[in-house]
Design a protein that fits this description.
Layout (H helix, E strand, L loop, with lengths): L2 E7 L5 E7 L6 H7 L21 E6 L8 H9 L7 E3 L13 E4 L4
Parallel strand pairs: 1-5
Antiparallel strand pairs: 1-2, 3-4, 3-5
Length: 109
C-alpha cells in the first residue's frame, strides 16, 4: 500500500493538498483532524460512529468511492446542510482507489 494525494477545502474556503496513508486504517475524518483542517470540537464529535454528521463533506471529485451504507444514509437524512454529493468523512476509509479525491468540509451546524 502507499500514500494517496487528496484535496480538502476547509470551512474557510482554503484548499489543502494532503497526503493520506492507506496502510493505517484511517478514515477521512481522521485525516482532517490530523491536518487540523477543522476547529477542535467541530469534527468527529461522535468519534466516527456515523451518529452526528459533524464530519460531513461534499465530494467534488469522486475517483470511485465505496457506496454509501445504510447507517451513513440514515444520518445524512437527519443532518443539516446536506447536498446530493454529501458523505460522512468517518465512513470513507483511505484506500489507494481514492487517489485524487477532492472534498469540501460542510458547515458545522
Amino acid at each position: 500500500m502507499s500514500d494517496i494525494n487528496i484535496k480538502i477545502t476547509d470551512r474557510g474556503g482554503v484548499a489543502h493538498d494532503v497526503v493520506a496513508p492507506t496502510d493505517m486504517s484511517m478514515n477521512l475524518m481522521e485525516i482532517i483532524r490530523s491536518y487540523e483542517l477543522a476547529e477542535e470540537g467541530t469534527i468527529g464529535v461522535c468519534g466516527g460512529m456515523a451518529m452526528c454528521a459533524s464530519c460531513q463533506v461534499y465530494v467534488i471529485n469522486d475517483p470511485g468511492l465505496v457506496e454509501m451504507g445504510a447507517e451513513e444514509d440514515a444520518m445524512l437524512a437527519e443532518a443539516f446542510h446536506v447536498k446530493e454529493n454529501s458523505r460522512l468523512g468517518c465512513q470513507l476509509h483511505m484506500v489507494e482507489e481514492m487517489e485524487g479525491l477532492e472534498v469540501e468540509i460542510a458547515p458545522y451546524p
